[in-house]
Amino acid sequence: MAKITVYSGPNCPYCQRAKMLLQKKGAAFEDIDIKADPAKRDEMLKKSGGKQTIPQIFINGQHIGGCDDLYALDAAGKLDGLLAS
What we know:
Elements: E1 4-8, H1 13-24, E2 30-33, H2 38-47, E3 56-59, E4 62-65, H3 67-75, H4 79-84
Parallel strand pairs: 1-2
Antiparallel strand pairs: 1-3, 3-4
């Protein structure tokens, strides 16, 4: 199963939407709240190339992007393959 990391924040509708899609797909993921741990925000910025919006999603170390990017992968039929790897 893929290693999935979601950098998110509380009360973020885009974060909730992305996590709901991953849950619907049966994918387990690590949810990191960047508001609760400022060091994790810095980690997210470094790994994402400076992207500041949340969520920032990584699958097997590959930067996927945000919620819209995750849904675009699903619409293109590419998400299931990534989640299975």
